User: Fold these one by one.
Assistant:
Number 1:
Amino acid sequence: MSISLLGAAEIRALAEQLDVHPAKSLGQNFVIDANTCQKIVRLAVISQGDHVVEIGPGLGSLTLALLQATNKVTAIEIDERLAKQLPITAKEHGVPDGNLQIMNQDALQVFDIPDNPTKLVANLPYNVSVPVLLNFLERFPSITSGVVMVQTEVAERLAAKPGSKTYGVPSAKAAWWSDMILADSVSRSVFWPVPNVDSSLVKFVRHAPLGDESLRRRTFELIDRAFGQRRKMLRAIYADIYGGSAAAETALLSAGVEPTTRGESLSVERFAAIAKQLDRR
Ligand code: SAM
């Protein structure tokens, strides 16, 4: 039996039946357009061997499109009513038993997913999109690529390169694990309720690690500090961790970074090079 997708009328009827009034606090804007779901799945290039993790499946529109492409999806949903309904909807739409696992949990609190997921595909809840994405990249190294739908402003920040106006903490941190590509924009009209922000798709592909966990932590601390005081020069910002501005200057020069530079022009590789100098104080 083939798997059928959800349409706009069915999504509204399901919400009514469950007495779900989409909650802004949970970023509940449901995709009511099957073409958009299929487009996301195509962009994620999923094959039958993939174990896809979806965060926030909601009423299941993207989940069913994912299950057309692979026989293994784990969906993590915080809202109990939605999590309980999802297996029923899946069965009614032709999903074979065992192909969909549901975890009724806050994605931020998920540290373990059975059977190493290989891809992450999600229309992320907007209020937690950046921490959820960064946490999943950190906690699940088996995830090699994925596609996420986020607020356009966030998508631009995630994919920004050093020196651009939108480059900041999310850009530098996401780049530790992955290449982030701004893939497409999504019309507001595909959502119910219609959100008051624009949305875009970001595709990510994991690259080789830039260092071990200890180096990552030190690098992230340097990134947080650099963007916490955006207008200051790095020599001044790092003076206290390197034991004075002269020592900070030496560390920066050894890492090949001009001490008068500001964080907004540095790639994550440069931040990591500075962090390596912390070992040699
Ligand atoms: N995937 C569905 C779609 O495209 O129609 C729903 C997407 S909606 C933008 C976000 C979903 O994430 C909602 O179902 C919401 O209940 C869920 N959610 C919100 N915060 C969450 C969290 N911390 N952990 C897991 N799910 C969450």
Number 2:
Amino acid sequence: MDFKRSDFPEGFTFGAATSAYQIEGHATGGAGSTHWDTFAATPGNVVRQENGDLACDHYNRYAEDFDLMQAAGFDAYRFSTSWARVMPDGRTPNPEGLDFYDRLVDAMLERGLAPYATLYHWELPSPLADEGGWRSPDMHKWFGDYTACIMGRIGDRMAAVAPINEPWCVGWLSHFLGHHAPGLRDIRATARAMHHVLKAHGTAIQTMRGLGLKNLGGVFNFEWAEPVDDSDAARRAADLYDGYYNRFFLDGIYKGRYPDAVMEGFAPHLPDGWQDDFDLIGQPLDWVGLNYYTRKIIAPNTDAWPSHEEAPGPLPKTQMGWEIYPDGLYKFLTRTAREYTGDTPLFVTENGLANADVIVDGVVDDAERTAFVSAHFDAVKRAIDAGAPVSGYFLWSLLDNYEWALGYEKRFGLIHVDFDTFKRTPKASYHALKSALAR
Ligand code: FCB
């Protein structure tokens, strides 16, 4: 690792991130069925039809996991609460689920880990999916009730909270590309889901402020859109990709509008009265989180809006096939501050790589991960030097886990997990980070 804690500003927060469905073991503790369970049970959606029933058994092993975080010297832990664990039918509280998150938060605090919570990392309770899920105009009300329920219980101990992980994935990836639950491919569903996600976000922020919570933010994902050449057509295609991927949600929150290039396709499909929702959507935020992994090289084609091709890139790739492009992180941090958030603190809330890690003689030598993290720390440092108020960095992920439609074979963890025995083995990158974080 080329960096030490002391290379970053005083008080910079170093953390690791996970999400509920990806690690807890959803079959335990009275959690209800989610749209991910039924999506995964439908052949063709998920590698080997794997699901989150067992995952990393974090539900039973969180103390061991937090001991490892503490030993590594982390300051904070970004986790999510599962709606279907807190309210198995989406509406009725589950005491066992609330007790679990209560214990979990206390276990973080006992180890000096500041809790950074996300309220929705994709496990929508099936009964709400039956009623239309993110397409439903009532979604923000259901989400507000869930927010009040879980934060009524653990909100007193939160360092920071964001309502929804990666609105683009909830909207576009899941309703237009169909790669994630509920697996739809429908433009009207997409336009509605993307707007309703923002209404739910605003409602949750309002609800939490009403409960007296502080330090409320949002977590968005970004992918740098590089035009394949400097033709007008390529630039337009990249601009549209940038619009619906990177700008849609921040434009909604900070500018009270959606990008023109996106409205070309969305206008006929948004719900009636959508223009009146921006007061709710634009609740002030105390911080903004950026999840960043890669870039795409965008080439135009002649198919219908918003079609494009992705050209192969020349850079080294991760196990996901994603190009390693740290400069994109620098560009998004500086652009977000410049064009949207000003002095509001920014966090890198996810960044990391999947690697085909194997244990040899008890050791996982993931030099690729250490190099990846170093290169992205460098991008963060450059962004800070350029004036972006970056306050922290969370690595995705603490543990190897359930990588959604790709099942258990993509290993993102600092800690290796054997999915048969649940044995944890810290990788070489864990030890490198531990040395870098030492005070
Ligand atoms: C992000 C998700 C996270 C994980 C990483 C690799 O989009 O938030 O759950 O899947 O990608």
